[in-house]
Design brief:
mainly alpha; globular
Length: 288
């Protein structure tokens, strides 16, 4: 990996490790439709004018169908699922479960021409990683710490996070990241406008705290607009499949922030499952 790729990788890892904490904070004061709408409106408000200034908006508009597909798979579904799940599980656990993204990326890579993923070490990594996930969920579920239903929400979101970069890498590689992401966020805003129109006035009437508003702003500026621009640059630098490996530093950041700032527990399930997920993900994603 080049120096540029490494810098982009680390930046993306941090920018997408912090949303889980901000979602937890915002979720205490805002409904899920309100949170998602705020993220995309803020993000689109930053990126669309930037794309217009750079004259990259027109190519994105020409590819609006693929931009819409990307928006549905990357944002509409996953952001709802993760935000809802974090009302019931810790932010660190959410970050850890999203680290399963590379596992789902492997079949995509295989069926799109990368037969190297069928290597025995890759299969071993998948088995180890899923074993770690089963231990994590099983131990903490038995202890009454987590609800498997919301674990399923995060896993389903992880599937979306695995599919969407593959689409971006193949269908939107010639489109500016600011334009494609800004347009995608505008589309998501339209989709969430009606449900948010119902919930947002109620959220505001309850008088959200400064911290709640700050979390919404951070989700829009840092974790949506800036994070996606960096991530698209990373995809162009190292490819869509390898770019999903940012879920590893994401996990570390999410767990660390959850423990230090949100008083979340580092559970026995995490202690047992996290190493296996990390080791399995490494071997599953490594080119052999």
């Amino acid at each position: 990996m080049s120096r540029k790729g490494l810098i982009l990788f680390l930046l993306a890892g941090v920018f997408w490790g912090v949303p889980y904490l901000f979602i937890k904070v915002a979720g205490a004061e805002f409904s899920t439709p309100s949170i998602v709408l705020a993220r995309v409106v803020i993000g689109a408000a930053v990126l669309i004018p930037l794309a217009a200034y750079r004259k990259t908006l027109l190519p994105a508009l020409r590819e609006w169908r693929w931009v819409l597909v990307f928006a549905l798979i990357e944002m509409v579904g996953p952001w709802f699922l993760i935000t809802e799940a974090e009302r019931h599980i810790d932010s660190g656990l959410a970050g850890l479960l999203v680290a399963t993204v590379p596992f789902f990326g492997l079949p995509i890579a295989y069926f799109t021409g990368d037969k190297s993923v069928a290597h025995p070490k890759t299969i071993m990594g998948m088995v180890a990683g899923f074993g770690g996930l089963i231990l994590l969920v099983g131990i903490d579920s038995f202890a009454g710490r987590i609800d498997p239903l919301y674990v399923g929400y995060i896993i389903l979101a992880a599937v979306g996070y695995a599919v969407a970069p593959a689409i971006a890498a193949r269908k939107l590689q010639h489109v500016g990241s600011d334009a494609s992401i800004g347009l995608a966020m505008a589309m998501v805003a339209v989709i969430y406008a009606v449900p948010a129109a119902i919930t947002l006035p109620q959220d505001i009437a309850r008088g959200p705290s400064l911290g709640g508003w700050g979390a919404l702003l951070a989700l829009g500026l840092i974790c949506s607009a800036l994070a996606f621009v960096v991530f698209f640059a990373l995809i162009k630098e190292i490819g869509g499949a390898r770019a999903t490996l940012i879920t590893y530093p994401n996990t570390a950041v999410a767990i660390l922030l959850g423990v230090l700032l949100a008083s979340e527990d580092f559970t026995l399930g995490m202690a047992v499952g996290l190493p296996l997920v990390a080791i399995g993900s490494y071997f599953a994603s490594k080119k052999h």
